[in-house]
Amino acid sequence: MPRTDLKISLILAVLSFIAGFVIVPYQLQTMPEIRESLPVSVPVLSLVSSGQLFVMVFLLSFAGCKFARRTDLSLPFFRSLVSEESFHPNRRGALRSVVIGMFVAFLIVASDRFYFQNHIPYLQDHPPEFSILALTAGVLYGGIVEEALLRLFFMSALVFAGSFLFKKKPRGLYWSAILIAALLFAAGHLPATATLFDGLTTMSIVRSFLLNGTGGVFFGYLFWRYGLIYAIVAHMLTHVFMQLLFIPLFY
């Protein structure tokens, strides 16, 4: 099992390394004002970011694999890639991944278009448009890095800690871990929100927790009920549906 965990962690770390080369240009695209304060060139910064992501995701994914095994949270798809275990796709899980990805994408874009842009001037002055960079960053960084850190590691660690303390694993323990991880997921977007909107307001904080937190709850549910790959697919599809369907449709 340790060798299997190492291989799974390495796969996620390599994908995260690639994501690092996309997320830096994307951040500079959405927040161009920070380019002037960069201490190094963009390629160097991307390489450093990629290296940091590789190390962080590798170490935390390895720990997450240990926690997941002890808490009945499954990674059958990834285990099938690095061992002789077979993977049998769950049709219901796959369908729910697609539906959830579409719903979360709709919620994010529609909420901004029909509500939040009336209360947050930046959204009204800067309507979104299709961006291949945003799509790629969302799929790789959101789908791989965030799911590895928040679902595989953090959510699994919470369930493991709770089961160790209470000597059992009731449904409420999993839901508590899902909600806490979702709140952390939403809170993690606050620094970028503050930079993008030139500070935090009550409305921008509500927006961050509502839109990001909702996705986090659904992705955590998929991880719990069906496996990590279904959470990853749903998260990736959220960005695909946003960029290819709902942004062109609503804007």
TrEMBL record:
CAAX prenyl protease 2/Lysostaphin resistance protein A-like domain span: 130-240
Keyword entries, A-Z: Hydrolase, Membrane, Protease, Transmembrane, Transmembrane helix
Biological process, per Gene Ontology: CAAX-box protein maturation; proteolysis
Keyword Membrane: yes
Entries under InterPro entries matching the protein: Rce1/LyrA-like_dom
Membrane spanning stretches: 7-28, 40-63, 94-116, 148-166, 173-192, 204-224, 229-250
An MF annotation (GO) of this entry: endopeptidase activity
Protein's UniProt keywords contain Transcription regulation: no
Protein name per UniProt: CAAX protease self-immunity
UniProt source species: Salimicrobium flavidum
